[in-house]
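ok trying again, last paste got cut off:
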Amino acid sequence: MPRKKKSRKIGQIGTPLAPKAKRKPAATAPKRNKKTLGKPSGTRNNPEQTSTSNKQGKSIKDPRIGSKKPIPLIIDDAPKVKTAKPKFFSPAQELESIEQNERFGLLLEKLDADESLSKEERIFVNKLTARHQELCDLLGIANEDDSAADPSEDDLYAQFESIDINKFK
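nice, full thing came through this time. structure:
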């Protein structure tokens, strides 16, 4: 009996395919454009020029450089309120207004009583005391504390005469 060689051709064993002309095209879904996320590759190294004709006065800004706005490192919970400074006609008026300031007086009393002040209160007191001293120097007003700290020679002599030597033996 003659032998048959194996072949890869589909013969009677498999189901025959329909001719290409009679086949129905496979239903294909309409193509959708994918959304692109982010910038295309290479934009970091080759920044895109937005417009070649720049207006006069404006320079080309590098898109890689971010904001120059300073970032606060310490967060303050209290919002800062700006108050308008009163304008004075003379240093004497300003000096009088500093001395009449109620908040300043209360804070000085707190300091005299050795109570602690907040950071904002300390800044306020230091600023007003510096301005008060500056105005006193400008007007030629001497502090009473300075005259008591520098006793005259007569006072020193009187103090020397009143010393009891027997205490030191």
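cool. The mean pLDDT is 79. The radius of gyration is 46 Å.
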